[in-house]
Amino acid sequence: MEFLCEKDAPRVSTTGGAVRGYRHNGLDIFKGIPYAKARRFHAPEPARWEGTFDATSYGCVCPLLRMSRPAGELLVPHRYWVQDEDCQNLNIWTPACDAAARPVLVWLHGGGYTDGSSIEQLAYEGGALARAGGCVVVSLNHRLNVLGYLDLSDFGPAYENSGNAGGEDIIAALRWVRDNIAAFGGDPGNVTVFGQSGGGGKVTTLLQTPAADGLYHKVMIQSGILPALLPDAQGSGRPCAEALLKELGLSGIGALETVPYAQLAAAYNKVAPALAAKGVNVGGCPQRGRHYLGDPLEVGFRPETLPVPLVAGSVFGEFVAFTGLGLDRAHMTQAQGAAFVEQMFGPEAAARLIPLFAAAYPGRNPADLVFADTVCRLPTLDYLRRRAAAGGRVYGYLFALDFPLEGGRVAWHCADIPFFFHNTDLVPSAQIPGVTQRLQEEMSGALLAFARTGSPNGVGLPRWPATTAETDVTMLYGERSRAAENFDRTFVQALAPCAAELGRRIREGGVQMQH
Question: Mean of the per-residue pLDDT values for the chain?
Answer without folding.
Answer: 95
